[in-house]
Amino acid sequence: MYFLNVLEAKGWYFLTTLLGGWPETAGVAAASLVFALIVGLFIALLRLSRWRLLRFPAVAYVEFFRGTPALVQLFVIYFGLPDTGFQPSPLQAAIVGLGLNGAAYLSEIYRAGIESIHRGQLEASLSLGMTPASAMRYIILPQAIRTMLPPITNFAIVLLKDTAIIFAVGVVEIMALARNLVTETLQSAVVYLIAGAIYLCMTIPMARFAARLERAKRAWQ
Amino acid sequence: MAPLLRIVDLHKRFGALEVLSGISIDVARGEKVSIIGPSGSGKTTLLRCINYLEKPSAGHIYIDGKLIGEAERNGGYVHLSDRELAKERQEIGFVFQRFNLFPHLTALDNVTIAPRKVLGLPREEAEARGREMLTKVGLGHKIGEYPERLSGGQQQRVAIARVLAMQPKLMLFDEATSALDPELIGEVLRVMRQLAEEGRTMVIVTHEIQFAGEVSDRVVFMDGGKIVEQGPPREVLLKPQQPRTREFLKHIQDR
Amino acid sequence: MLQLPQIYAENIRRWLPELLHFALTTLLIAALSFVVAVFIGLVLALMRTSRSPVSGGVAAGYIEVCRGLPIVVLLYIVYFAPPQLLPDIGWKWFTTLAGAVLGLGIHGGAILAEVFRSGIEALHKGQREAALSLGMTPAKATAYIILPQAARIVLPPVGNYAIGLLKDTSLCSLIGANELMNDAKSIAFADYQPMAVFVLVAGIYFAMSYPLSLCVRYMEARMRHGRS
Q1: Which of A16, B153, B220, C89 has its CA 20 to 30 A from that of B194?
Q2: Domain that includes residue A81, residue range
């Protein structure tokens, strides 16, 4: 078959070319994950606060970022911001865009995790004379983190897959290189299938790991 | 007359574990048999084998002289599929420990769905029958309620009405009151006593020893997958012959 | 950025009708992909729960692959690969719209398969046993007892999938589909107003997804109360 001939002849070349984009893919994924973890925690704490004035912006943030496509958000940052004088680089736009988007999802994971710890734990800690802050630090958060680990891992996988769209704002990662390769060689089938295989090699092990975490968490409960 | 229920040398294995080791028992029409015994003795498994929710590893079961759950094919016996078993199960009523009411249906719909969809009764006839059964168990005023609004005792009574609406020849009770709060047990036992007095054929697996004594014609004590002792209540419960029976009853009384 | 109100006042009469027209295309893509995804998802869920190990294995493999691929990559493969692999067949009918619907549907089928499967498995085993004990055949038990309950359980996750699907249609712009995102890009660059246009388009997507998410939240709340 023609497909197999091309695969045999050019497959290795395609693979190594595409893997050249791996640092950008993994780098943006990692950087936006860190960004989202930090901003997301901040948003979650706002969301859980006692004051409506603090809660409201957090709610609006989450609704907006979860209710609109990530691609639009990226475009607003990369193509829109220059209007105000600040020109982000493609990498910056990608990291900030995916990071802000991810923060909205992570804040909900944080919130669910913290709320899932039974109220009795807080009451027991307070009865023992701990301040709310100590209770949070020594009793609630350690338990919450164990609950949140599987959904956060799943989110990391989603983030990795989302990096496949950042070529639209000019980042040269795997998909960008794939498109260039196809323009050069017209071998869309082989090239895109190899690109897909590269992603699968990353996401499938991560997904299996996340499933193992999920089982461990259920056993612990 | 042939017994209504005949069980011949029933064995059931789960993997390497043998839960029933050669159970043989006859139940006459109109007889009430209680099965008591410690957890793990195989009582529930035995009951579930009768309506083939569990498929026996060996042995045969006959209802009214007719072999059920299996067919003779190619010189041997083959278990029937759930589709083929449906017809036989119409004649056997099973009351579950956890009621298993259908939460998306009202009490009346729970009771009428099988008469309508299995027996093919028209809606008015099924509902008339359903109302009658629900009134019989004391829930005529709750026919429009969904299971979540009913107490445990009420749910179990609806489950019994649901079984009665199919007019079964044989009724099986699998620890019908074990999942109930103590104050709700009485209302279910009252219904079961009423059914017993009507002359129904009942096999009752229960922990309520006193109830078993009052209502049964025969008490069967099971342990380790075997029938250890059986007989009229005043013999098995008051003058048990076997040491294991005595030990079990003493343990119950101490609680 | 502070000039946004002015920019909108000047241009909205030109932009909005065109954008809304393409918003309809977006809804169409989403609706068609949804149908394809539900169909594929049901087939896969049945294959997964069947007793045949071949069926189960094929379904599991499909699901793992489609969930592990980024949607964009899947869209590229679905739209560009077949015409290149089999050039002899006439591909004129395979528009970007068709490719988008197929790609999104194939991906969605994998997601929904897991939703359907856990919906069916969430039901307590006792429900099936009670139905069979009353003399129902497995077919009747499934139709009257299992499926009605499973459908109720499955509705919120399916609703959430639909919301995600609506947003994911924006990715079809990357294979050249003529939907809202692509139109936004052309207007934005033609009129030199990227910020204004993209923010407006974000608003349109939000206006489409927010009512749906409110519905899903309402359904989830009802589910928590109406259970036994």
Answers
A1: B220
A2: 2-220
Q: Which of C126, C144, C145 sits opposite B96 (nearest CB)?
A: C126
Q: Which of C133, C144, C149 to mutate to test the interface with B (most CBs of B within 10 A)?
A: C133
Least CB-CB distance to C138: which of B53, B82, B118? B82
Fold of the CATH domain B33-44+86-254 = Rossmann fold (3.40.50)
Give me chain B's average pLDDT, please. Answer: 91
- Asked whether residue C228 carries a pLDDT value surpassing 50, the answer given is no
Interface of B with C (CB under 8 A): 51, 53, 81-83, 85-87, 89-94, 96, 98, 100-104, 113-114, 117-119, 146-148, 159, 162-163, 166
For the whole model, what pTM was predicted?
A: 0.77
Given a contact cutoff of 8 angstroms between Cβ atoms, the answer to whether C29 and C179 are in contact is: yes
Nearest to C205 by CA among C14, C20, C18, C17: C20
Query: What is the mean pLDDT of the segment spanning A20-45?
Result: 94
- The angle at the Cα of B89, spanning B83 to B93, to the nearest 5 degrees, equals 145
Rounded Cα gap, residues B142 and B167, in angstroms: 21
Q: What is the pLDDT of residue C148?
A: 86
Within 10 angstroms of residue A221's Cβ, the number of other Cβ atoms is: 8
Question: What's the ipTM?
Answer: 0.87
| Longest Cα–Cα distance in chain C | 72
- Residue A209 sits in a domain whose CATH number is 1.10.3720.10
For chain C, list residues whose CB is within 8 angstroms of any CB belonging to chain B: 124, 126-127, 129-140, 144-145, 148-149, 152, 226-228
For the record, the structure tokens of A19 come out as 């893997």
Question: What does the angle CA C72 – CA C73 – CA C74 come to, to the nearest 5 degrees?
Answer: 90
For residue range C57-68, list pLDDT tens digits in order: 999 999 999 999
Instruction: Give the pairing type, strands B76-79 and B92-95.
Output: unpaired
Neighbour-count burial for C204-225, b at 16+ CB within 10 Å, e otherwise: bbbebbbebbeebeeeeeeeee
Q: Which residue of C has its CA nearest to B151?
A: C228
Q: Say whether C228 and B114 touch across the interface (CB within 8 A).
A: no
Domain boundaries, chain B: 33-44+86-254
CA distance B174 to B177: 9
| Beta-carbon separation of C209 and A161 below 8 A | no
Query: Could you give the number of structural domains in chain C?
Result: 1
